[in-house]
Amino acid sequence: MKKITLVFPTKEYEKQILDYKNEFEINGDSMDGTAGLQKARSFNEWFSMLIDNSKEETVRTGFVPSSTYLAIRLCDKRVIGMIDIRHRLNDYLLQFGGNIGYSVRKSERRKAYAKEMLCLALEKCKDINIEKVLVTCDKENIASSKTIIHNGGVLENEVSEGERITQRYWISLY
């Protein structure tokens, strides 16, 4: 049963997006897959960056084109997660970040939303002709590794970045 849908962020969701950011900040969590929301000083600054980075012609230096979506719970229209699809990989993303980053707010975890979010994002990857998707996670993040494996991820290897060990999974879409 479909519990969520992925939608492009709009001004309509500004309050919910800022509440989402606040929940992560209060809990000291990492906001993966939010297209820089953690560093943005305002919704408008973040949204402007999101729009710029959505096209090859306007992508900001150091970034790759990407599509960012809100995971909206269908029954009450609450933002429960965010997911970012990077259309191509640069050197850093190839090693550590992957094609897809995502997060679920702490109050909504352990409800299988991440599995559904990743599944829906993989369909969007097909729409933009990405044939093989790299999804990474911290080795300590067991829930994320289970989410990736559930969606067809095959562990290629683990790489170190300082003290952190990143697991690199590939998902073939065709």
TrEMBL record:
<protein>
    <submittedName>
        <fullName>GNAT family N-acetyltransferase</fullName>
    </submittedName>
</protein>
<dbReference type="Pfam" id="PF13302">
    <property type="entry name" value="Acetyltransf_3"/>
</dbReference>
<feature type="domain" description="N-acetyltransferase">
    <location>
        <begin position="26"/>
        <end position="174"/>
    </location>
</feature>
<dbReference type="InterPro" id="IPR000182">
    <property type="entry name" value="GNAT_dom"/>
</dbReference>
<dbReference type="InterPro" id="IPR016181">
    <property type="entry name" value="Acyl_CoA_acyltransferase"/>
</dbReference>
